[in-house]
Amino acid sequence: MTYFETILTVSLFCLGLRAITDDGMIGYFLREFAQKKIPNLGKPIILCSTCMSSFWGTFIFWGNCYLSNCQLTNSLVFEWLGVVFSAAFINSFFWAYYESINMCKN
Fold this sequence. Notes:
By secondary structure, this protein is mainly alpha-helical.
């Protein structure tokens, strides 16, 4: 998987997970549990679309690296950071857009 594809995968996963755990959605119980029981830990896992890229981006990037038997080099850490920060920006941008669309519907 190219780094662009990895960034896209991380962003789509995070935004999809955030969307299905929004108010009134099927996964809202997960969001509610995280808000009440583990708010600090819940933020990068399920509560904040921008923050989610740090947790899920790390998991997806290194999981992909493991599955594709990539060579561990010093530059790989910078590539991982690039994927995580790029996905965070995309998540932030598109979640704000998603919220603005939902506000217009109401």
